[in-house]
């Protein structure tokens, strides 16, 4: 049994991204500070495929959330950040560099979008999909 939760290992993986301002990512908690980040698990079916030996292919879907300034100029910067982050995730996939979850074999993400806005701030979310094999011991 692992010492850390899967979401904690995902958090640590995302913190490796050189694009993050301070490198700190929360789990299921987005601060109101500018350029704060969170990974938030999305409810979904976890088992994708069951194997004859009792093992299975599982998935974790989560959002990478960013609290960012909101204005015409800032939106261009935020869009570029989202593009660069997606590119970083793609590079991790191509390099087979994944969160330290046993059996992890795929990570991908979709285009980011604005979830919520206020006068000066916006919350952007980038949906991320992770797959891993859970073996029977």
Helix content: 10-25%
Mean pLDDT: 93
H-E string: HEEEEHEEE
Portion of residues in beta strands equals 35-45%
Oligomeric nature of the chains: single chain
Characterization of the model:
With 137 residues, this protein is an alpha+beta fold. The chain contains 2 helices and 7 strands. Strands 1, 2, 3, 4, 5, 6 and 7 form a 7-stranded mixed sheet that branches. The longest helix is centred in the middle third of the chain and has 23 residues, at 72-94. The mean pLDDT is 93.
List keywords for this structure.
137 residues; alpha+beta
What's this model, at a glance?
With 137 residues, the chain is an alpha+beta fold.
In terms of topology, how is this protein built?
Elements: H1 6-14, E1 25-27, E2 36-41, E3 47-50, E4 56-69, H2 72-94, E5 104-109, E6 113-117, E7 121-134
């Amino acid at each position: 049994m692992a010492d850390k939760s899967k979401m904690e290992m995902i958090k640590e993986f995302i913190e490796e991204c050189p694009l993050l301002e301070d490198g700190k990512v929360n789990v299921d908690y987005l601060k109101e500070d500018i350029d704060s980040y969170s990974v938030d698990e999305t409810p979904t079916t976890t088992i994708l495929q069951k194997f004859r030996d009792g093992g299975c292919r599982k998935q974790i879907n989560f959002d990478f959330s960013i609290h960012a300034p909101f204005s015409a100029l800032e939106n261009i910067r935020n869009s570029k950040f989202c593009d660069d982050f997606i590119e970083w995730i793609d590079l991790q996939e191509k390099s087979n560099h994944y969160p330290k979850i046993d059996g992890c074999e795929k990570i991908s993400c979709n285009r980011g979008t604005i979830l919520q806005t206020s006068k000066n701030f916006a919350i952007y979310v980038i949906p991320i999909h992770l797959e891993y094999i859970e073996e029977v011991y």
